[in-house]
């Protein structure tokens, strides 16, 4: 009996020692937090969680860990929230572009516009070079954060992604050992042990083929360069995918979380097989040539079948086979998961249904047009499912082409994407394994933007964000405000949680007289971090709109932040003094009569519509139809309150009740304009929206109690 007690005590002491050592390592910040989501570093974002930038370290030992997106979401999900998590790899990440061109960002914006009553959160967890093993590991953590849906786009990396059967980044052939390893990676002691073993391993393999191999991750991660169709390793990878995907769907279904599974898109037409085998029946090259011959004969259907056959026979497995697609289709059919037919969307946007370079950059990654098609497929499936229980706003529902034409990216983004792909194609499997001449070695740049984009290939620590910032400042200094604004908006698209980008964009917009767009940027700025600059300018805008109470509150919000600026620099002190002066001036303005003053908001004509607006004003007293034509043209460029106000007034003069939706949009800028409120009230009255008309009457009574129209409105409303 004493021996049993002794063993129990011994094990107990061992556990205590391990626990204390684990605590010691954590206290001294050894290793990394391996949770999928962590708190942001900034105190101003303490209400949010973000994708852990170190989580990739859990899955990569031999190669530098790839990082994920910078997506964030609220710790406390709001009552009107709709939260969807996306799971996938480099296609979902938007490679070769930065995060402003991810399909998930486009999806987020479209859902946000279509359902303004809901707080939309689209959280993209994708990381480059991972497969279903990693996604399975993500699933339990994702389900903790109240998802309304989970969307999966994965399958291309099943063989060569981390822990894949043909990958150099491997752990064990046993799924149980791999699973145990991933769980143990949450312990700092285990991370220390792995680092020690890894260091010894690198020392022993120094000078080996793997450690010295040059090139892209796509080249270096591959261990087995030939995985024959329906061979042993092929079947192992297929079964791995089937089991992991089934597990993920079942896990979500058990927690009543809807799952969307997308089928996969590959370049079948314009990319010959990466490899081939000697057996004629399994020759990918032969099948591809037969597809080309069929296409020349005009047999598009026959060509399509053979192109897919060639892809499947390609032994270098960077494109998912049709059997992986069959797993997706069967699982969607047998479970409650919703199939997203992404391939059908890409086929419908490709001549003859043959997907190629028209929408893809190389083998699987969508180009810019392709990102919008992919987002369209996601958006349509989610909306069609009826999962978002809210009325959509018909005024804000726009098609793919609208977003494609108005999206926040610039020539710099396009060029960086092109150069990354050209660099990728300089190495195997796009070239011979021993090829030494690369795109980077031979290309010559021309022009400032071209040189900036190309510089990223030589600077591993560089970022497109710094290049956008550098270019924006250069353009702004040269008064090329529209182009500078494009760069700032691209920065917002890349990191929509960074206050300073919104402030810089707002500063440009104010120089361009676009008050409404500037206000929207400033309100986003304070949402992600309260700051003196944004509150000060918002107060100024509310003063222009005669919302003096709102201006006072905003100026006080600005002044309340000065205690947190330690130490204050000269620029901050000057800004604080300016805010104090503005606050005093607002009180003077508020004491003056409302009715007798010109409404200042009318004086600010956004620079991008100045010529059209001037033409409209020219006709406004003599030819309302011509004025309407030019105002509507303004609206296609800038959907601002000012233009909606003018269009509403023309329709009001014509006693046309379609003025109402335009007045609704004008209200954001003219809520304190007495004459506007009169017309807005009358339009709602004749539209039989009596409660809304009474509410507007009350607003009018408060800001202009002596307005001459008040008695007649009061009588008409039965007050």
What does this molecule look like?
The chain is mainly alpha-helical. Among the domains are: 37-191 and 235-275 and 314-406, Rossmann fold (3-Layer(aba) Sandwich); 605-716, Alpha Horseshoe (Serine Threonine Protein Phosphatase 5, Tetratricopeptide repeat). It has 32 helices and 8 strands. The chain has helices at residues 2-27, 90-93, 103-114, 132-142, 175-184, 188-204, 209-212, 217-220, 232-254, 284-296, 300-313, 322-334, 342-348, 368-384, 400-406, 411-424, 439-442, 448-455, 464-477, 481-494, 499-511, 515-527, 532-544, 548-560, 570-590, 610-619, 624-637, 641-653, 659-670, 674-686, 690-703, 710-716, and strands at residues 37-38, 48-51, 72-74, 81-88, 119-124, 149-153, 259-262, 338-340. The chain has a 5-stranded parallel beta sheet with strand order 5-4-6-7-8, with helices on both faces. α4 packs parallel to α9 (232-254), α19 packs antiparallel against α20 (481-494) and α23 (532-544) packs parallel to α25. Residues 208-212 have low confidence and may be disordered.
């Amino acid at each position: 009996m004493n021996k049993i007690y002794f063993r129990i005590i011994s094990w107990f002491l061992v556990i205590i020692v391990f626990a204390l050592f684990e605590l010691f390592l954590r206290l001294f910040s050894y290793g990394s937090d391996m949770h999928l989501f962590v708190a942001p570093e900034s105190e101003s974002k303490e209400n949010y969680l973000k994708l852990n930038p170190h989580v990739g370290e859990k899955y990569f030992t031999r190669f530098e860990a790839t990082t994920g997106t910078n997506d964030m979401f609220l710790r406390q999900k709001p009552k009107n929230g709709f939260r969807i998590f996306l799971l996938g790899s480099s296609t979902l990440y938007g490679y070769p572009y930065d995060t402003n061109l991810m399909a998930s960002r486009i999806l987020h914006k479209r859902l946000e516009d279509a359902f303004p009553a809901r707080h939309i959160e689209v959280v993209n967890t994708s990381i480059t070079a991972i497969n279903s093993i990693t996604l399975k590991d993500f699933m339990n953590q994702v389900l903790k954060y109240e998802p309304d849906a989970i969307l999966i786009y994965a399958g291309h990396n099943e063989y060569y992604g981390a822990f894949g059967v043909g990958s150099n980044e491997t752990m064990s052939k046993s799924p149980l050992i791999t699973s145990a390893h991933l769980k143990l990676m949450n312990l700092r002691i285990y991370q220390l042990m792995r680092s020690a073993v890894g260091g010894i391993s690198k020392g022993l393999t120094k000078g080996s083929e793997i450690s010295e191999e040059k090139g892209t991750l796509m080249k270096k991660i591959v261990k087995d360069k030939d995985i024959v169709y329906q061979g042993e390793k092929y079947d192992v990878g297929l079964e791995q995918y089937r089991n992991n995907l089934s597990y993920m769907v079942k896990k979500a279904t058990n927690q009543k979380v809807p799952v969307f599974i997308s089928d996969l898109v590959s370049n079948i037409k314009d990319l010959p097989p990466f490899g081939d085998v000697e057996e004629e029946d399994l020759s990918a090259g032969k099948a591809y040539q037969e597809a080309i011959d069929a296409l020349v004969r005009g047999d598009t259907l026959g060509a399509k079948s053979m192109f897919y056959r060639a892809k499947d026979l390609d032994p270098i497995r960077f494109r998912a086979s049709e059997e992986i697609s069959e797993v997706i289709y069967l699982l969607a059919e047998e479970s409650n998961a919703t199939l997203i037919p992404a391939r059908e969307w890409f086929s419908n946007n490709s001549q003859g249904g043959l997907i190629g370079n028209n929408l893809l950059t190389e083998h699987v990654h969508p180009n810019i047009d392709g990102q919008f098609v992919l987002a369209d497929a996601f958006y349509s499936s989610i909306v069609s499912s009826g999962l978002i229980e809210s009325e959509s706003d018909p005024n804000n529902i726009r098609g793919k082409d609208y977003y494609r034409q108005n999206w926040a990216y610039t020539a710099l983004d396009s060029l960086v994407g092109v150069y990354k792909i050209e660099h990728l194609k300089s190495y195997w499997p796009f070239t011979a394994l021993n090829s030494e001449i690369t795109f980077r070695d031979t290309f010559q740049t021309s022009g400032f933007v071209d040189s900036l984009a190309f510089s990223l290939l030589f600077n591993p620590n560089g970022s497109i964000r710094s290049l956008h910032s550098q270019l924006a400042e250069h353009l702004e200094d040269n008064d090329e405000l529209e182009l500078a604004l494009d760069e700032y908006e691209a920065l917002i698209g890349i990191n929509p949680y960074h206050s300073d980008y919104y402030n810089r964009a707002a500063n440009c917009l104010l120089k361009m007289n676009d008050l409404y767009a500037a206000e929207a940027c400033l309100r986003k700025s304070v949402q992600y971090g309260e700051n003196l600059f944004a509150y000060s300018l918002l107060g100024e805008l509310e003063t222009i709109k005669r919302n003096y109470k709102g201006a006072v509150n905003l100026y006080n919000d600005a002044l309340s932040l000065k205690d947190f600026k330690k130490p204050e620099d000269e620029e901050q002190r000057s800004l604080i003094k300016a805010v104090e002066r503005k606050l005093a001036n607002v009180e003077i303005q508020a004491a003056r009569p409302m009715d007798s003053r010109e409404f200042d908001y009318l004086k600010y004509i956004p620079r991008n519509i100045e010529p059209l607006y001037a033409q409209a004003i020219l006709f406004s007293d003599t030819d309302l139809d011509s004025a309407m034509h030019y105002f509507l043209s303004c609206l296609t460029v800038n959907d601002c309150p000012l233009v909606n106000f003018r269009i509403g007034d023309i329709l009001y003069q014509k006693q046309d009740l379609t003025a109402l939706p335009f007045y609704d949009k004008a209200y954001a800028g003219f809520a304190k304009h007495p004459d506007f409120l009169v017309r807005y009230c009358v339009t709602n009255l004749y539209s039989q929206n009596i409660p809304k008309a009474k509410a507007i009457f009350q607003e009018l009574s408060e800001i202009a109690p002596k307005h001459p129209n008040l008695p007649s409105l009061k009588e008409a409303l039965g007050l």
